[in-house]
Amino acid sequence: MTVAVVGGGISGLVVAWRLRSRGRDAVLLETTSRLGGAVGTRAQRGFLLETGPNSFLDREPAMRELASALNLEHRIRAADGAAKRRYVYTRGKLRSVPASPPAFLKSDILPFGAKLRVMGELFSGRAAPGVDESLADFGRRHLGATATRVLLDAVQTGIFAGDVEKLSVGATFPPLVKLEREHRSLLLGAIQAQKAQKARAKALPAGSTGPKLSGALSTFEGGLGTLIDALGTALGDAARTGATVEGLTRGDDGWRLAVSERGQRSELKASSVVLAAPAYVTRGLLEPLDAELAARVGGIDYAPIAVVHLGFDAGTTPAPDGFGFLVPPMEKRRLLGAIHASTVFPFRVEAGRVLYTCMVGGATRPDLVALDEAELVALAREELKALAGVTATPTLTEVFRWKRGIPQYNLGHLERMDGVDRALTRLPGLHLAGNAYKGVGLNDCIRNGLALADALVDAGA
Ligand SMILES: Cc1cc2nc3c(=O)[nH]c(=O)nc-3n(C[C@H](O)[C@H](O)[C@H](O)COP(=O)(O)OP(=O)(O)OC[C@H]3O[C@@H](n4cnc5c(N)ncnc54)[C@H](O)[C@@H]3O)c2cc1C
């Protein structure tokens, strides 16, 4: 019998694709008319616009493995060298983020006293064992209040668009907690890790070409939609769009899904089910099966986010330097940040054009995502003018709005996940996938999706 995968975002696509490439029968059901969920690329009047995510870091073997199996490796495009620098808006202007400890000491990113406090990190202690600490508390212990509000909050904004006081450090940045556990000080830990990496590189046999992963910020030729298109093509008829899963029941011979597809209701029988829809949809499907599990899953918050693209004709505004900038919430501005999309990936625009991708909303300004499109464009233009001095009139504007955009791994998330995993043992053959649980990045979704599919095949599910 087949495995049914509910939800055709990157997570569901990867699970269904891997199951089928390993010889299992799998069908994917996606409620909207297109595959990809948050991921998608639209070509519009000489600009390639991303609907949600812009890039991934080429440091995840699972992403490379997937790209290679789909014959897309040669279409991976690394960010332009000009995108190396990153900026943070703080104390009235954009300031470059230093890339090394000596550069940090010379930089003006933090006031002098706050820089001294960061150096004091060397003397930080460990957290009490078993404490689920907020990212803000963790940051204040290690880096001090100012660096936490300026730098750490900016970093999390770029990934989670969250509230630094609510996010759990263990759930959002597990490597930081590991560094603290193993080395006490993050700085000492980072130095040790760098030494170990150098030693490993030295130990590589002569002539070895080293690891294939570039570590660079990357996308695909044609944008991230290229990956979705390739997965869709590989799945063929096994990926059904316009198919909404409305109910799920368990019988003696497996699972039954109530599917509504282009006005027709039908029942699909499956030996196993992978729920890869957002948590708030999954909650509804789980409710009749296990109220406790449904409540745990349904308790995961989402931050809304609007993506506002502003495209400029050649010669109307200078090409901005660097990847883009982030705005820490303490600045009380209306922009979370902006990506200099045409600097990062010049092939995404026709020659000389400039594309800014602005992010608005997040956990700290959810109200802004409810503005209408014209208001969001006006807001993005006003903020770009105030923060980055962009005064030209864009020739292209496009808004993509995600009312429940990014899952928030707030305090209690890890405990919630333990409870979810325990509850799932009561429902054999039912599995969860997707960005709500164990990683929000594309790399996380792909790594977790492949691992789940492999586990299902290996268990003979
Ligand atoms: C604005 C934005 C910017 C981002 N930037 C980056 C970035 O630069 N780099 C990065 O690594 N990550 C980024 N992310 C995160 C990453 O894009 C997401 O975490 C990831 O794409 C989520 O994939 P998913 O498949 O888990 O969920 P989704 O993409 O949400 O897919 C879930 C799917 O389930 C479908 N569905 C819902 N209900 C049903 C139903 N009843 N029946 C059938 N199907 C259903 C939905 O239509 C949807 O297609 C960004 C996210 C957003 C929103």
From TrEMBL:
Keyword Flavoprotein belongs to the record: yes
Top-level taxon: Bacteria
Cofactor(s) this protein cannot do without: FAD
Functional pathway: Porphyrin-containing compound metabolism
rRNA-binding among keywords: no
Pfam families: Amino_oxidase
UniProt keyword annotations, A-Z: FAD, Flavoprotein, Heme biosynthesis, Oxidoreductase
Domain Amine oxidase: 10-456
Name of the protein described by the UniProt record: Oxygen-dependent protoporphyrinogen oxidase
Organism per entry: Myxococcus fulvus
Lineage of origin: Bacteria, Pseudomonadati, Myxococcota, Myxococcia, Myxococcales
